[in-house]
């Protein structure tokens, strides 16, 4: 065990050194896009019902900003970097853009104060039809469902879910790690089907003892406040976070992509024509619609972006406590992308 831990620490250090050297030797203007989802303190109750790869502690986010500064990377708005490149204006040798996917309320509560303090701009990719609602995404609903109760063997309401559970019929609530695996398996279904099943469940399975989690997604006031001084801008992440490769209907694709842009244009300020693919899933038809309504798009592909990068194929680093809790781990995550 000690040997394995030592080898892991050595590998992290090597990857960090590779990442640091590669960045230092890079001569072509390069943009690093740092991607986050939820920003939650270490003991926040929402962590009990969230995928570990979705969560970053506020102090870890602050460490990332300091680490980027230490390697000489300049903070920049994503759309500003894209616009400068398009206009042929000089770009920093090394810059980084902060992005948050989904539009979580905790971005306002815990990340925004850090961005303000350190004067770091950011882009939040909004799921526009969830703004100003009490709704959340199906993975969070499933996580809470299967980690707080055993799924009844005889309950017909769960026939759709049982094939995805460990050992098919567990008799106890799942651990967070087991529930995370269930989420991965459920992605073989389309989003509307999963949501329909969840909406059909009787309240006895979903009220969780009468305890309500508070609003999870941003509201208009929070969106406007963060955009009022120009520090935070907003791109599109579809209307409902439906994965594009699971939408066969052309009208549904239009509504999720073109409709998302229409929703963004209603914002008082801060909207930018940059899209972010839900789950990183891309289809030819979906990409064509994105190109017709947006000027750039972020993927989930790992890596940084040179000045020659396709605007609709922007690479990013998805960060969370597990892969970037320290400066060394952050640099190792960046270094891993070039191997």
TrEMBL record:
Residues 94-339 form the NodB homology domain. Gene3D superfamilies: Glycoside hydrolase/deacetylase (3.20.20.370). GO terms for molecular function: hydrolase activity, acting on carbon-nitrogen (but not peptide) bonds. InterPro entries: Glyco_hydro/deAcase_b/a-brl (IPR011330), NODB_dom (IPR002509), Polysacch_Deacetylase (IPR051398). Its main location: secreted. Pfam families: Polysacc_deac_1. This is Polysaccharide deacetylase. Keywords: Signal. CDD domains: CE4_NodB_like_5s_6s (cd10918). It is found in: Secreted. PANTHER family: POLY-BETA-1,6-N-ACETYL-D-GLUCOSAMINE N-DEACETYLASE, PTHR34216. It comes from the Bacteria. The keyword Endoplasmic reticulum does not apply. GO terms for biological process: carbohydrate metabolic process. GO terms for cellular component: extracellular region.
């Amino acid at each position: 065990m000690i040997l394995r831990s030592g080898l892991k620490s050595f590998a992290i250090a090597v990857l960090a050194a590779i990442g640091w050297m590669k960045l230092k030797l890079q001569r072509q203007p390069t943009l690093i896009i740092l991607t986050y989802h939820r920003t939650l303190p270490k003991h926040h109750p929402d962590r009990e019902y969230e995928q570990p790869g979705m969560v970053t502690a506020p102090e870890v986010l602050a460490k990332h900003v300091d680490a980027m500064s230490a390697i000489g990377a300049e903070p920049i708005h994503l759309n500003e970097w894209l616009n400068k490149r398009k206009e042929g204006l000089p770009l920093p040798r090394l810059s980084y853009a902060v992005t948050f996917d989904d539009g979580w309320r905790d971005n306002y509560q815990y990340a925004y104060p850090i961005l303000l303090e350190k004067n770091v701009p950011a882009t939040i990719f909004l799921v526009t039809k969830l703004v100003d609602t009490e709704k959340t995404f199906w993975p969070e609903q499933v996580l809470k469902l299967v980690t707080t109760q055993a799924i009844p063997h005889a309950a017909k309401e769960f026939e759709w879910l049982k094939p995805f559970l460990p050992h098919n019929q567990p008799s106890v609530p799942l651990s967070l790690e087991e529930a995370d695996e269930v989420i991965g398996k459920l992605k073989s279904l389309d989003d509307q089907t999963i949501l329909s099943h969840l909406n059909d469940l009787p309240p006895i399975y979903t009220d969780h003892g009468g305890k309500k989690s508070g609003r999870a997604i941003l509201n208009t006031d929070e969106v406007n406040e963060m955009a009022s001084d120009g520090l935070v801008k907003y791109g599109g992440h579809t209307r409902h976070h439906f994965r594009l490769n699971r939408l066969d209907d052309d009208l549904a694709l239009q509504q999720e992509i073109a409709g998302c842009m229409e929703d963004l244009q209603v914002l008082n300020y801060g909207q930018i024509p940059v899209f972010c693919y839900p789950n990183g899933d891309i289809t030819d038809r979906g990409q064509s619609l994105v190109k017709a309504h947006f000027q750039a798009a972020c993927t989930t592909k790992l890596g940084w972006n040179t000045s020659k990068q396709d605007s609709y194929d922007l690479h990013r680093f998805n960060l969370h406590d597990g892969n970037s809790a320290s400066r060394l781990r952050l640099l190792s995550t960046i270094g891993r992308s070039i191997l």
